[in-house]
Design goal:
The complex is a heterodimer of chains A (about 110) and B (about 120). With about 110 residues, chain A is mainly β. Chain A has no helices and 9 strands. Classes of the chains: A mainly beta (about 110), B mainly beta (about 120). At the A-B interface, strand 3, strand 7 and strand 8 of A face strand 5 and strand 10 of B.
């Protein structure tokens, strides 16, 4: 199962905004509004931060936002804080009978 | 309050089997499917499949057929992942996560580390 494509790493300074891309195909990201984003700290389970492309679960900071254009989705974090340093994964529904869920390879965010 | 509690770390020899449990609290167990996700050391997340908590029907992702079995005990709101004929490459942390297939995984267990070593 080919993963969605994410940059391996991104970085930014406190207060800045960063964007993480997630590129798929018309069979997944481009074809459905079922893109999710997860934040994971080392040794801890992932946490859902964006679902259905743009929606934030209750309790998630509004500094996190999601969008999609064509076959690519994006996660933007504004007003970067030290606590945002973590790994971020995108996920999408895929038109596949056997593998309807696909993750991206993950992006390590470093706050400088 | 929704939470998923998984069983503890396991150390197994190659060829053995392991069964990981995931007990759900704080919601109607049959209202949401249960997914399983693998994360090898230092690697990304990999969706293994899911099981309907209504019907017990499992779906296995490509690469997770044959040695992997999802099951349920609805009387105790618990999902299980069993892996047979363990190999060194099965060494990973295994997560259960609530969510319908294709939809967001909104609550996750804490993860169970399975180490396969002779």
């Amino acid at each position: 199962q080919s993963a969605l494509t994410q940059p391996a790493s991104v970085s930014g300074s406190p207060g800045q905004s960063i964007t993480i891309s997630c590129t798929g195909t018309s069979s997944d990201v481009g074809g459905y509004n079922y893109v999710s984003w997860y934040q994971q700290y080392p040794g801890i389970a992932p946490k859902l931060i964006i679902y259905d492309v743009t929606n934030r679960p209750s309790g998630v900071s509004n500094r996190f936002s999601g969008s999609k254009s064509g076959n690519a989705a994006s996660l933007t974090i504004s007003g970067l804080q030290a606590e945002d340093e973590a790994d971020y994964y995108c996920s999408s529904y895929r038109n596949s009978r056997t593998t309807p869920v696909i993750f991206g390879g993950g992006t390590k965010l470093t706050v400088l | 309050q929704v939470h998923l509690v998984q069983s503890g770390s396991e150390l197994k020899k190659p060829g053995a089997s392991v069964k990981v449990s995931c007990k759900a609290f704080g919601y109607t167990f049959s209202a949401y499917a249960m997914n399983w996700v693998r994360q090898a050391p230092g690697q990304g997340l990999e969706w293994m499949g899911w099981i309907s908590t209504n019907t017990g029907n499992p779906t296995y992702a490509q690469g997770f057929t044959g040695r992997f079995v999802f099951s349920l005990d609805t009387s105790v709101n618990t999902a299980y992942l069993q892996i047979a004929s363990l190999k060194a490459e099965d060494t990973a942390t295994y997560f259960c996560a609530r969510g319908e297939a294709g939809d967001a995984l909104d609550f996750w267990g804490q993860g169970t580390m399975v180490t396969v070593s002779s």
